[in-house]
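Narrative progress, year one. The postdoctoral researcher (J.K.) led the effort to move from monomer predictions toward full complexes, under supervision of the PI. The following entry was the first complex the group processed end to end, covering 808 residues in total.
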Amino acid sequence: MALDPVLLSRLQFALTVGFHYLFPPLTIGLALLMVIMEGTYLRTRDRHYEAMARFWTSILAMIFVMGVASGIVMEFQFGTNWATYSRFVGDVFGPALAAEGILAFFLESVFLGVLVFGWDRVGPRMHFFSTIMVCFGSILSAFWIIVANSWQQTPAGFHLVGEGPLQRAELTDFWAAVFNPSTIHRFLHTLIGAFVAGGFLVVSVCAWYLLKGRHLEFARRGMRLALPFTAIASLGTLISGHPNAQMVATHQPAKLAAFEGVFQTGPAGTPMYLFGIPDTTENRVRYGLAIPRLLSLLVYGDLRTPVQGLDTIPRDEWPPVGLSFQTYHAMVGLGMLLIFLAAYAVIALRRRTLESKRWLLWLLVFAVVPAIVANELGWIAAEVGRQPWVVWGLLRTSQAVSKSVSAEQVLASILAFGAIYLALLVLWLYLLSRKISTGPPAVDVEKSRRPAPAPTSGVVAPGSATGPQR
Amino acid sequence: MELQVFWFATLYVLLAGYLILDGFDLGVGIMHPVARDDRERRILMSSIGPVWDGNEVWLITFGGALFAAFPHAYATAFSGFYSAFILLLFALIGRAISLEFRSKLTSPAARRFFDIVFWAGSALATLLLGVAAGNILQGLPIGPDMEFRGSLRGLLGAYPLSVGLLALALFAMHGCAYLCLKTTGELQQRLARHVWLAYAVFAVLCACTITYTLVALPHIRRSFADRSWLWAVVIVGILAIAAIAPALRYRRYGYAFICSSGTIATLVVLLAAAMYPNLLLSSLDADWNLTIYNASSSERSLRVMQMIALGGMPLVLIYSGFVHWHFRGKVELDKADY
């Protein structure tokens, strides 16, 4: 059996970036919530918010290190496995990556040191500033990597120089390249998706404590803070997803056609499939439920303009239709479910019935999993839907691998990454669940670092801080 | 100054920054077995706790800047050194995970395991960095298409391995000097004895490796012969290395650390000067060298990057300098530490 270095490098990239992307959304969402927690503590002097911020700090540190460890792999992998790609795009892609390093990675990594180690070593304002910098750095990091990836999807601000294998893209307009047609849409949508993931993480832990009757003050405050945040963010994914899809229809019609299973460009309004199984031998969607004209309505705002189908695209420029369709639909489906779940839960919270609905709390405990999965599905859809291109319309993925790397080398590294990442994942999950089981320490309201003004959020009697003991 | 020259210099500045900063982190890892009990092991890890992650970013920025400024060199080197880079990644992952997770595990066996991973990851990363530097100086089998034509075994020749050993001694010394600054009591005294040993080994290996370089690599000899001002750099280097001795003798570990940092900087300057204007040397044909001219990005791209760097790096130096300064002083373990 001859090993295909292209397929192996694709698999390795998918594996390593899929693993990596478990962590940044949690980091980004959690960091923002921690800014709110710590800010609330400084404003109200309610020590429960300090306990929350300290507790989540140790969780954040565990998530962040996994993101860093798996992230370096990504930066190196452009060079190790996709050297031809690197030569082609270095002029444009490189500066975005360098900007990410200089402006964002330094900021979040340096201040993370203060955030994690500085609780009792720096003043509260300096510490809060550090939390804000970690949050800001993580968002800025997301921005630059999405700039780079968006340029692959909708290249702009460049021209091609050279011929044949030495052809490369060269920057002509930096801002046009940075703010290419898809950057802002994708940045906002990805960022909000990260808020959903981080939000559901906090909600999940708080729901767990409420179910177990432990750390109730911690859990209630956390839920009051994180649940509305998560509900708004979930709705935000829909609000940001819609113009995103319209942008894809305009600039990457083959991708949108694959997402929606549009094989034929009809004469009139195009239906939208709620689900189905695309069949690329018969060029139709089987076992599907289609709503007439709905796709035209969503893309163009009218019921008659047909959406471009795969029939207008040369066959060798089709993305994998089945995988694109299913991942896109699964992402939207999970996203919708999460919106309804979060909205229902927020209403229950307002009506003070949340804690009595144990079935709802259990759903909230597990909701972090579909939240993370939805984030991953979005990226799979985006990257698979971009195929066969690694730079849309300019360079095919199959032409972009490193010429000096053998298939055997890649097979060895895939197996090694697979084993190590699996072990790391198990270890990480074990340590997280241990930390969550232990929970935050009891808040001693009498002992204070500084004299506190009369608490505004109601007096907490000593002993009730953690609820009934196990 | 031409943009390509600016970026050649900036890359080596980023490299020097990385080696000085992560050099002591890796050195702490190499010296970790000096700790005898759990508390001492935690102290050593906590001595770099707040700063190691920020220090590692210098490597990521170096890689990103290489990609952006000289994409052909990035592509050729990273794909050419494929297996070595994968190993380096595993070493760095091991170092990171063991730092963060080791003390969160309670069983002595688990902690022992991660102590070994911490040491092994730090030592392997250091060795690979040195081997890479040795290969850069020696030259690689690069064809006219800018592609690497060798194998992993070819990268493990005698010369690169000797540079790898030098790197181990250098970072051991550098990390140990740092630890002498950060520890007290019997632990510090034990480390003080080890830093002398590391220093002696380094000084000897340094002299040997420089001699080996000049003897075995004629193109490097020629580089040096053409640039007589390099002798001034060599003198500075010798002085920096020599000054470590009285600093250690009088227990002025701060000065020892500054001198070992200066030593690293000097070695990077010598590396840069030996290579300029080449980025990667082809051992097959000098016409096939990757230079700062044939491997670079466009003028516009280099200029944009220059603005990002000149705007961003001073800020980085200010706030990371502040954080390093704030966490100076002896390690006193509290619940935030590793």
